[in-house]
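Review session, final week

We close the course with one last complete record, chosen because it touches almost every idea we covered. It is Ion transport domain-containing protein, a protein from Pocillopora meandrina with 657 residues. Go through it on your own first, then we will talk.
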Amino acid sequence: MIHRIAAEDLILQRSASQLDDSCSIASSFTLQDRVEAIQQSSEEFHEMVKKEMREKGIDRSQAMDLVRLQRLIDVCDTKENTALYLLQDWNYEPQVCRFLRLLCSSGVNLKDVVDFLHNTPLHIAATKNFISLAKFLIDSYPYMLMAINGQSELPVETAIRHSQDDVAAFLIRRMDHRRVRNLFKAKKERKAAISLVKLTEEFRMQKTILAVLDCLISPRWPHPPCLPSDIVPCLSWEHLHDKPTHFHVTYDILESDVNGRFPDDPDYEYTPKSFYYNLTKHFQQDLNKEILNHVVIKLLTERKWEKYAAFWFRVRFVNYLVFLVALSASFMSAATSDDPLDYKSAPGRKSLEILLSLMTFWFIIDEISELKREPLAYVKDYFNYLDLSGYFLIAATFVFRYPGGDAQWIFGSLAIMINFVGIFKYSVGDRYIGLYIKCLGMVIYKDIPRFLVVFTIILLAFSISFYIALKAGDHDLGRQVDALGSEFALCKNGVGCVMLAGLKTWLEGSSVVRSLPTAGYSWLGALLAIFFMMSVVIILLNVLIAQLSLTYEMVQEESLLSFSVLRMQSVATIEWQSRFKYWNLRKKYYVPGEIKSREEVEEMMKQYRESTNPTSPTAYEKWHVQEPSKVHVFYEGPIEHKNLFTPVLKETGSLRH
């Protein structure tokens, strides 16, 4: 069904205060006048359309636009007022673009069209997120890109202030990258026009963030030597290479504080939550592959990791190893002694338990600090509950040791198991082990629960039906239940014994009964046993193995992204812990930028292009139904308005989407 747009839908409704504003063009006529200007149901309108078609030889749609536009001009008095009215009050972008093109072709100069706040047409387009209109205005009036309004704002600043992500990203890509970086830099006593820290705090303008990251890489071309002609002639420009030899990667605005000041500035605020910290926090909820795999982010993470994060991460890892050694030695010593409270026979155990208690208390304090830093993210992370349970189980073991009993050994056994599992959180230190652990965890998370659901349904159905079917062959249920393959001492005459036998069939691949003929089962019981073994051993187990292999292939890319996020999280955590004025790792190792070779950047760009724009569907895409992907369109305008990084990456992939 074709959706027809009514005349009232094309007009932006205004409040009473706005309509009463004498400075507004819309206050010069009523809503009825506006509706009549574009109404096409009257006979007069169709006659005027036919007349335009005959006189100018144009098609019907163009003639209708001319008639509508002429009606608007009659209502607004002048063409300039009509243009301003379309920009302010029209909410159908394609029609606004068509009407403004017609006005420009009739002699209207849009550079003279401003509202009472001195907003240019590009400012108004940025406010309303009109990308097509912004493209038309920049093509026709390039100076508008750097024009300011009455509030001394550029169009891109207006777009960001109104949270218009699409048009803000478009305008940034049309600006020179040096001007873009200046927007996020503080100048002497003045704060930065735009705070990159605040921009990433809510993480709503992801396209804008990606466009800003694109502006942080600048190509460097070699310059020919210019020596006296009697020594060696100057090289011709024709002999210069088209490709740059190096790239300069800028980090300064990424390390800026909330005011746009850099770490080497005396007025720099030692804020713990930087641009990098905010990105890491949001990546835990939304894996934006375009930003996460961006060349600048990967280079910055690699530099931070190599300079200081890797060292402090290893210190934390060694600290946890000492904790596990003390935990194991203390509990094993207590388990081998006749009286766990007798410290005279083993004096070293008392020192171990004191060390273990202090380290456990330190880890609990660290968890409380994490909870205070990011309470919502901490509560949503299930692994934090695992860590806390391990620490509190250690405390419970010491508490229940004094009254005696078996509770201390139960808590101690669980504490050993859970705290040893906690060492996997340090797997991010090694790339290969970390990726393997992430893949293994995702495979277990994705496939095992689904398998257990199906297996549980089949096991329950078989256990109950098989137990009832035993009555058909022999009324002595005890003798028949004893003939099951289950040898558990806890299994008494009941349906639980049948379930344990079925569980053993899955784990060991053995028969659910020892012998069908000697057990005296009826034909129904034998049929149910055969059906159960066929369903579990032959079908479910083989399907599980195949599904595990397929899932392992599918989650490799997702595991790589998760591993990158975990490494960024480790770096951000270490930076947050060194947030003090006299111990600040971000300030100590700060550099404004660094030079990278063309080969290194090309290799990273190739990986970036493959990760964000895959050429062939992956196994996961073949297995699951895919949603329609979004097509990102960008405009290739004049070279003076492009990002300088764009034209030099035609062979290695562009950062623009």
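Two points worth writing down before the exam:
The first strand starts at residue 217 and ends at 220.
The beta strands are 217-220, 246-250, 593-597.
Good luck, everyone.
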